[in-house]
Design brief:
Number of strands: 0
Helix content: over 70%
Mean pLDDT: 83
Radius of gyration: 35 Å
Order of helices and strands: HHHHHH
Shape: elongated
Number of helices: 6
Largest sheet: none
Structural class: mainly alpha
Strand content: under 5%
């Protein structure tokens, strides 16, 4: 059977009038509840992270400082050769600055400490100690036991003074 155009017209309703029965989205309460909940969640996450970082900084600094002091106490000028001892001293000083002050390089840390008003004599001692470490690490002739003891004592004193200042 063939369908004609007249058959289709009779099926179609005479007047089509579409009416939108929905309200705009921004007038619904659920829309605003979701918006404020998301904004509150973002703000809460921001403040929680800030709070955690404020707690973590001093705690991390204290733990790292304690660990470095412990490693420094375990170093012995009598039992270690010159190169190894000065390599360890250099590593501990660099570790202190990178972990406690979160600065990757000692020269950056020295600049930062100068800006904070740390005593110039202390910073000069630190630079001299690092230079002595470099020299002793790569020197073909080692250093004597008194030089190693004084380097260990000086390292302890410098780190203690820096801890007091920070």
């Amino acid at each position: 059977p063939s369908i004609s155009v007249q058959d289709i017209r009779s099926i179609k309703s005479a007047s089509i009038h579409l009416v939108d029965h929905t309200r705009p989205l921004h007038t619904r309460a659920i829309f605003w509840i979701v918006q404020f909940t998301l904004a509150f969640a973002v703000l809460a996450a921001f403040f929680y992270r800030r709070h955690r970082e404020s707690i973590r900084g001093p705690l991390r600094r204290r733990n790292v400082s304690r660990k470095i002091r412990s490693e420094l106490q375990n170093l012995s000028a009598e039992q270690m050769d010159s190169r190894k001892l000065f390599t360890e001293i250099d590593r501990l000083i660099r570790s202190y600055f990178s972990n406690c002050m979160e600065l990757p390089d000692v020269s950056d840390a020295i600049i930062h400490l100068k800006e904070r008003g740390v005593d110039g004599q202390l910073l000069e001692q630190l630079q001299q100690l690092l230079e002595r470490c470099e020299y002793a690490r790569f020197s073909p002739a080692g250093t004597d036991i008194d030089e190693r003891r004084s380097a260990l004592d000086e390292t302890r004193q410098i780190l203690e003074r820096l801890e007091d200042l920070l």
